[in-house]
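[job 0417] fold request received: Membrane protein
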Amino acid sequence: MSKLANDTRVFKINPAIDVQNVRFNNRYGFNLAGHLYLPLNFDDQQTYAAIVISGPFGAVKEQSSGLYAQTLAEQGFVTLAFDQSTTGESSGPVRNVASPDIFVEDFSAAVDFVGLQTFVDRDRIGAIGICGLGSHVLTAASVDIRIKAVATSVMYDMAESMWQGLNHSKTAQQRTAEKQLLAQQRWSDAENGHPAAGLHELPFDENNQPIQADQLFDETLPADADPVTTEFFNYYRGRAFHPRSVNSATAWTATTPLSYYNFPLQAHIDQISPRPVLIVTGEKAHSRYMAEDAYNRLKDHKELVIVPGATHTDLYDQLNLIPFDKFTSFFKTNL
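[job 0417] inference complete; emitting structure tokens
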């Protein structure tokens, strides 16, 4: 644990909140990088409730998860924002490989870390997953009963989205073409001795063939970009650009969808009950139906909050829309 240096966070920083640079291992041996936020008037002789936070999928701790962590530290929690394995400053000899199993494990490893701190009460640890990490955090909480309360913000089921497409739009023909492309990509990666970068959610051309690219976003937004692409571009390439963010500067490995095809997330989220779950999404979020689907599969105790007028990325960083009062009351009540 060391004082944060070379600060590259992309949101407005509260200098009154002490932030420590930390490292911890998951059970697969990946070394995870995190920022540990200490609450106002921190006293290391006291014990605090803690919240571990990650996401969005392809973001880094200097982006949205750090903003959530800082804001909740202002409310009296010890919080940990961390980079998923193979991304950001976390380890991994092959960079930017997404794995449902490993990313779920990363949340439990974060619980390990905060629970080892003498100033954290192990019986008062919660978790938040933002965007695509929302489906991972619910999966983690399904079996890791140390997570006493769990929340998601604009949750996105990455496995469902990759397999079925947004709004379940992917056809069987498209999925077959996609698998053929990924099979050829594996041959290319094996022949070249290293994995290529590529899109984890493939668009299709007018002939129903998948389109591949080695970067999620170009430097400029295409004139014919759809609203969802525009929204993501404005966040990752615009107001919250970070050079270590997969979504800002590069792409996942091209074969990333294979593991999500095989291993769906959220299989046992009904088992979180009776521990409480808070599902937050935006009224205008393109991902809203995923949050509502997850909510419907959960058992009590659960709560769904739909933020009026909010889009998906609004709940990444727009302080006038993110319901931090709701997150605060949820965790203060349940931790």
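[job 0417] notes: The chain has two domains: 2-157+265-334, 166-261. The two ends are 25 Å apart (CA to CA).
[job 0417] exit 0
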